[in-house]
Amino acid sequence: MRQFFCALILLFFALPLAQAQNGGTVRGNVFDKDSGEPIIYGTVRLVGTDFGVSTDFEGFFSMGNVPPGEYTLAVSYVGYDSTAVDINVKNGSNIYKRIMLQEGGINLGEIQISAEREKSKNQVKASVVTITPRQIRALPSVGGEADIAQYLSILPGIISTGDQGGQIYIRGGSPVQNKILLDGLTIYNAFHSIGLFSVFETEAVRNIDVYTGGFNAEYGSRISAIVDINTREGNKKRWGGKVGINPFLSKVLIEGPLKKLKDEGGGSTSLMVTGKYSYIDQTSKSLYSYVDSAGLPYNFQDIYAKLSMVSQNGSKLDLFGFNFDDNAKFAGVADLNWITTGGGARFKLIPRTSAFIIGGLFGFSSYEIGLNESDGRPRKSSIEDFSGQIDFTYFGRANELKYGVNISSISTNFEFNNLFGQRIEQEDFNTELSAFAKYRHKFGNLIIEPGFRVQFYASANQVSPEPRLGIKYNASDRLRIKVAGGMYSQNLISSVNERDIVNLFVGFLAGPDERVIDPVTGEETDDRLQKSIQGVFGIEYDINNNLEINIEPYYKDFTQLININRNKLEATDPNYLKETGEAYGIDLLAKFNTRNVYLWAAYSYGFVNRDDGVQEYPTIFDRRHNANFLATYNTLGENPWEFSLRWNYGSGFPFTLTEGFYTYFSFEDGVDTDILSGNPDLGIIYDEVRNGGRLPQYHRLDLSVKKEYNFTDHLKVEIVGSVTNGYDRENIFFFDRVKYDRVDQLPILPSMGVNVSF
After folding, report:
1. 121-159, pLDDT tens digit by residue?
2. What is the DSSP letter of 460?
3. Domains of the chain, CATH where assigned
């Protein structure tokens, strides 16, 4: 198998050298003239022809198979002065142009269709939501700070555990089945224990693509969903930054050029450093003493840095690193700490003699977590991931080809004691090799995007062929129909225990290299991978130029899931068991957007079931109904006000009912244990029906108001007042069965913050 992948890599490198094209290629980047920021979704066209594309999130564009001749390359974007340059295309030539757009006073409000909407007509985009920092900032700023964690939970198909716990479930997929990427590297725990904040800095993000299902072949090693987060470069023209302070945390962002980007050409080098530190465990003692006189038990700090180098012809190299640290101390219940570190190099090469674009990534990511609970059974988990990828992209006139190879070396270490005192330990090393290809072609109103991925899991000695397919049909100028699906696999499993009092421990194990038992047959499974088959159907409809709706029914068949055998009684019992499952439902989304009004309404109706061979049961994150409403109004003007509200409703999560209790002695003192006058421990007798009960429904209203003061072109002060859980809803967090004590999620939390940009 390794020889096969080596031959495949050589073939992939040989293809660009052997490529032949009709005509030439016109490509380039479009930047803001003042800041050097890329112009996203700008319109690029050859005047007098039907050649036209939109820039991507790096401001990059490419048009292939352009017939030889002289053309005018025109570039436009809402709110900027248009520009045009003359070019001469020759057969086999590759022309690169750097275009700088100046922000202007031209009123382009009469443009009927945005470039973003045009983009949706040329890409399948099934079960994909793209998020920008502007959309995140439209949310009510909890604690004065808008965060990705708060925005992800309003997307259709995504279920959040709430204010505390910090985990999301995507269309029936548990956290371990959803891959979260930061600049191409896997982040194994992206959300802090206080569920209001993620490890990511909103101001450093360029775009987020959330694939809730049916993703194509460039992504793998997960069976449910992908969250792909890409950061921006530092300012290429001047030094500046942003400082923020509120009762929850303080943060700082510094950015600027080490070598300035010049309009006339040449390369540039820029730096961006961000950091945030939470002190809510201290400030809450005085500000929110009504919650808990001991304060809220959370503390975290996040650091991220990025050095970006861009060459004259648009090739680029990014060097980045991060460190995320989280602590949560629930007095008498649990003490948790986790830390994530990593870094990498990401590049894009634009050869002068080839129509192919070469991309790549090399980096590492590590994650360590430890949990000590009152039961005296500590848990530990760590994972280290070294990965590399090379990919090639070719842009034709009506088609695009992308293919590549990926290698990941993953080591895991896990220690766990189950309820019966049996210790489960695993230390493992696994290498994953994969190759993928994706082809997109537009036939008039029809877009077809087939893909294929092959995964090789060395430790399991398993090969997983995974076909993928996406289709979109532009039925009219306003109506689009889409279909997507495929086969998926992964080797990573999680240690989350649904009976935990506080479900914060997220540990990881490489897929077992020992036997896995099918509880139905009592025999070993054919392989030890987790697998799924997914399908999604969708309709996009633009009711008018400002209002659009999206409807997506979906189905996920989890054909094999590997779980820890938590009912292990004897050392000879298997450590792992097989389960199956399914998730299905429908997601509805409506968006209304004007210059000063942003409305968002989302509703999900879904089912998530598992079958452990004994019974079929709903998972702990099976939420039948989930609804979100978001409204933002901006007064515009020189020093505008902004008002935002967000309301979330979710029906109750399942849980296993309590049948009764029993007493027992652990006999830690051996024969000296006093069973006559000693105090025994209290054990729980669970109902035979797994997850047969339902917790109360969840709903919460968040409000915020912002006032912006613009003193100069670059100096801006923003004052934010917010209220979390505006009507003080008592939403349950967990229930201690032994102590018969209910603990609720966060009550009403008013706050005020100040952000200064310079």
Report:
1. 788 888 999 888 888 888 887 766 788 988 898 999 999
2. T
3. 22-113 (2.60.40.1120), 128-656+692-757 (2.40.170.20), 658-689 (no CATH)
